[in-house]
Amino acid sequence: MYYKTTYKSPLGILYLVSDEENLIGLWLEGQKYFQATLKEEPIINDQIEILQETKSWLERYFKGEKPNIKELSLKPQGSLFRQEVWNLLCEIPYGEVTTYGKIAKVVAQKLHKEKMSGQAVGNAVGHNPISIIIPCHRIVGTSGSLTGYAGGIDKKIALLKHEGVDMTRYFKPKAR
């Protein structure tokens, strides 16, 4: 069974979902792939401990503190490849960014592949079911493009600015 609650953040309403023991989802309202990893509709329950812990984590994050990802029991659902990408995202420090290409190189090494496409990594990053906490907003294009955030580029920019990232090197991609 899945349980959900909401959290009012500076970015809008966030939807938190747990399997009772672990956080398995955190989506921004209107986010692409919203609840895509869930096998059933979650039941509203504000009393689940991990959901309360997540709200506390988010409170501290949005106050400018730097809560540790490891404080929360996370269990995002996805393929081995996606799990590898999401684990690497968790290693990107608060206020720093890396590129899809750099993540692709590390994943290729871990999976004993000669190379890995940045697009494959981008797909995994875009399907991250635990936004903000698993910091997919910290991934940028090699050229400095702020491409590919399922919650919307403006929210990605807001999160990076919140974390104190110098935004002068980055730009919004042109609309297609």
Report on this model:
The model has no long low-confidence stretch (mean pLDDT 93). This protein is 31% helix and 15% strand. It is of the alpha/beta class and 176 residues long. Strands 3-2-1-4 form a four-stranded mixed beta sheet, with helices on one face. Strands 5-6 form a two-stranded parallel ribbon. Helix 2 (80-89) crosses helix 3 (100-110) and helix 3 packs across helix 4 (118-126).
Write a short abstract of this structure.
With 176 residues, this protein is of the alpha/beta class.
How large is the share of residues in beta strands? 5-15%
Order of the strands making up the biggest sheet: 3-2-1-4
Provide mean pLDDT, rounded.
Answer: 93
Pattern of helices and strands = EEEEHHEHHEH
Main beta sheet: 4 strands, mixed
How many H/I helical runs?
A: 5
Uncertain parts: none
